[in-house]
Each structure stands twice: as C-alpha cells, then as structure tokens.
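Now for a typical sample entry:
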Amino acid sequence: MRISSKYQRRPWTQRGLLSKRKVQMKLSICMMVKNEEKYLKECLESQQPLIDKLGAELIIVDTGSTDKTVEIARAYTKKLYFHEWQDDFSAMRNITIGYARGDWIMIIDGDEVIEDCRELIQFFKSDLVKKYNVVMVDVKNFVNLETGRHSMLASPRLFKRGNIRFEGAVHNQPIYKTPGVKLNNTVILHYGYIADDQELMERKFQRTSKILIRYQLSVSYMMHQDRSEALAEAEKAYDKIKNNPEEGKKYLYVYGHLAKLYGGLARYEELIPLVKEGLALEKDYIDLWFYLQHGYSATGKGEESIAAGQEYLRLRSIYQTLPISRESAIVMDNLEQEPAVYYSLAMNSLDLKQVEQAIEYFCKLEQGFALDERVHKKVIEACFESGQAYPFRQS
C-alpha cells in the first residue's frame, strides 16, 4: 500500500527557500536516512507546507544508501550530506543538527509522514514560539496497514537550536531543557514497524540487533517474528529493574513490553503480578490496565476484570490530559481497544448474572460489531432467566 501525497512536487529551487533579504530562519528540518526509498517521497512531500509557509531548510544526511534514497532526496534539497554509518544513532543525529541554521530544529525520519502541518505553522507564527524550548507531537506507529492497527506515543520532535543533543548509541534519547508544549492536533505517521513488511523488518533487524540493549533487542526480535528470543531478552531487561522502584519508574516501558509478550503467550499467572507491579509505579499506564483486564478475564476473575476494564475506559477518555501522554519513552499499543474492552466487560457481566449491565456494554460496541451464535444464545438464556427483554436482532 502506498500513501497518497497531498502535495504536488516542485523543484527545490521553487519551494520556500529563504531570499537573501531574510536574515532569520525559523526552522531546520534535520533527517538522517539510509535506504528509505519506500516512504521517503511521501515523507518529504508532507513537509512542503513548512518549507513554503515558514521558509524552513531541509537537511538530509545519508549514511550509506544503496537504493534510490539519494536520488529522491536530491529532488527536494541541496543540503544533502554523506557520512559513514558508525553503529551510533545519536552520533548521526548530532551530525545532522550540526548543519542546522534555523532557530528551531525538527527531527523526522524517512519512514515518517506529517499528517497535517497547520498546527505547526500556527505555532511558529504565534508568541508561543518565544515561550517554549521543546514541542511534543503524537507519533502513530503502524503495525498493519490493512487493519490500521497502530500504537501511539508522544515524542519531542522540535527543539530550540542549542537546546538539543542526542545520547545513546541505539535508543537515541534527546537531551533538552524545558519548558515544553504538546501539540494535540499534530500527528506523525510512522511506517517503519509494519510487521507484515518482511523486507523492512529484515533490514531493521540486521541494522540494529548487534548493538541493542536487552529491551531494544527484544523489540527487534519481535519485529523479526521470534517470540521466544524476544521473551528471553525482555525478561533479562526486567530482571535489571525489578525490586528497584527508581529503576522501574525510569524504564517503565519494559513492563508494557513484557506484559504484551506474556499476554500473547497466554502466560497470565506471570502477566498479572507483573502488571500490578507496573501500575504501582504508574497508575495511569493505560496499556497495563488493558493487559490486566485481559489476564483477569482469561483466568476466570470476572469482577477483577470488569474493574480493570472500567479503569481502562476512564483513562482512555482523558488520555490527552494525562502526563503519561507526554512521556516519549512509553509506547501505547492499546489506545484503540475500546470495542474489545466493552466486549470483555459484557461477557464477564453475563457470567456474573449482571444481565442489565451486560446489555448496556453490548450496546456500546461499535455499530456492526457482530455477535456470534454462541454469544447470541448466551444473551438469550440470560435474558430469559432474568426476565430482561432481548435487545438485539439475530442475523
């Protein structure tokens, strides 16, 4: 599946380059790329409003592409540089920002597309640009394009120049000073973790597996469809932080990742205490509530599952207001799981003979959510026993 471009490509000489009369540049877009031909054109097209409206400069550092990446990049900018890959993501990031001349720096990768630039442009034309040092946006990480399955995380992507450097050979973390602001209507679409794109997964696995720490190695094995190795490395990462609340809080994302693995392998007796430990460190971690309701449901603990599911729905409804929504290290995989949670709540309520409550949950499912014959029969029997009217038409 290819992404349709919103913008018509024009030669770089016509696209928003600063005139000699302008002495100030608001924004430098800094990219490092290697073999990104699949999505690079869509990525660069999505940035054109920033170049047209703000006079932003586009800086691209190539680290050894062998496909059409360089050819595509040359059509969009003169500021194309070449540096040999050194097995150090942060070092390359710092090289890219070293070329920047703008007051602000934006970080984006070649497999990412800005969904809509209007809020970013408005920010740079407002007085807010003088008040803050960093801007966070939401990143939607697609896992499957056919189903639209994705995860979300808040990511700091724009920084005042001089207020940013990167550390960490793999998990390149931006080091910056606050204050910062979150733009809730700006989303970056990330296509680099599509699980059914085996060529892409193989390339990412080969590039990163040598230098990953335990957590990142586990993620890499997951992309490579090797669950046993992913679990082994995730458990090693967890062993380094368990029984140490300070470390656990710092590396909270390990809990979410390991819980996801335990859930996928139906290892619920290990999942439940792990999730409880994680929630003791961060009570608003929505993914952990989702895994907890699933674990309780699978082990026949209906009341506990209902309570966990209700908390998931409460937190989901106010997600954008939660501090964790601005935590760049935590990826949320389950923000769009309300239908599954409502279904679980309904089924557990039926098992507990809470028929009226079960029907209320069923009615909150998205239109078109099909109930199979087994569920229809269960609802009919429960309604008959309780004297409730059957609320659905059976197809």
Summary: The two ends are 34 Å apart (CA to CA).
